């Protein structure tokens, strides 16, 4: 099996860690070796949260600069900030709904134009796919299911050795029972958006 290296970047509270857990469970259910590492940073204060996942044979869960096969961005500026982890073949899937940092919200900084962010990412990577995951999560019935919408898009992109069915099973097994139905809808909407 070909090794695939995935970086997931988000802002604290967007569900990055749950998305990693679901993907790890899906890989385990499919007997796919997976290694994971997480950086929580100042997540509780809206800071960056990053997960690194390697599917296939690997000695470590560290993904160095230029090594990511896939970058999944829960927030467009965070995807841009992680661009150094990508190369000219990297597939990038990112949410287009911005979550401006505190400095931009109080007028002490400027959030870049979304068109500029997309151009910068597209110029340095192999393929860029964008979607408004926030709108799809709302359509699914839970604005907090952005992470699951993005998992749907990731799986539909066909860049990981994980099947849609194994992710659906992992969602049912790892998310709170009250949210399983909504999360499955969110997954399907993300899957259909790519």
Shape: globular
By DSSP, the count of extended strands is 6
Strand order of the largest sheet: 2-3-1-4-5-6
| CATH fold assignment | Pyruvate-ferredoxin Oxidoreductase, domain 3
Protein name: Pyruvate ferredoxin oxidoreductase
GO molecular function, one term: oxidoreductase activity, acting on the aldehyde or oxo group of donors
Keywords: Oxidoreductase, Pyruvate
Organism: Candidatus Shapirobacteria bacterium CG06_land_8_20_14_3_00_40_12
List keywords for this structure.
pyruvate; six-stranded mixed beta sheet; 6 strands; alpha/beta; 194 residues; IorB_Oxidoreductase; oxidoreductase; Pyruvate-ferredoxin Oxidoreductase, domain 3
Short description:
Residues 12-191 form the Pyruvate/ketoisovalerate oxidoreductase catalytic domain. By secondary structure, this protein is an alpha/beta fold.
């Amino acid at each position: 099996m070909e090794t695939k290296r995935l970086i997931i970047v988000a802002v604290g509270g967007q569900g990055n860690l749950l998305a990693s857990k679901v993907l790890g469970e899906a890989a385990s259910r499919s007997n796919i070796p997976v290694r994971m590492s997480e950086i929580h940073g100042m997540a509780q204060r809206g800071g960056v949260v990053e997960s690194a996942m390697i599917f296939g044979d690997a000695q470590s869960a560290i993904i160095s600069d230029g090594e990511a096969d896939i970058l999944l961005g829960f927030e467009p500026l965070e995807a841009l900030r992680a661009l150094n982890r990508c190369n000219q073949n990297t597939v990038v899937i990112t949410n287009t709904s911005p979550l401006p940092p505190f400095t931009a919200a109080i007028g002490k900084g400027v959030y870049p134009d979304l068109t500029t962010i997309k151009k910068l990412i597209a110029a340095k990577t192999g393929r860029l796919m964008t979607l408004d995951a926030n709108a799809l999560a709302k359509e699914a019935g839970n604005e907090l299911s952005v992470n699951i919408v993005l998992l749907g898009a990731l799986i539909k992109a066909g860049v990981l050795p994980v099947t849609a069915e194994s992710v659906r099973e992992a969602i049912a097994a790892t998310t709170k029972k009250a949210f399983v139905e909504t999360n499955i809808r969110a997954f399907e909407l993300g899957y259909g958006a790519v």
